[in-house]
Please model this.
Amino acid sequence: MTAKVSERGQMCLPAAVRRRWGIEGGGAVAVIDDGDRLILMPAERRDAIVRAFHEFVAGDEYDALVESWGDPDLLTD
Model:
């Protein structure tokens, strides 16, 4: 499934995705950029995903990974 981004940066999520995840019109969607991909999810699930990523990549390894991306804003709390 793909979604098109408009010239203004807006994106339309397919109806099936909105129904599956309970995203209503005007609902918030979290965007996580982990350096290799963009991850979209209902905003209320973002904190759990970021916590899981921190647990998977621990301590100094996490800091080194984020530094290797060249962008300190990626996957921050």
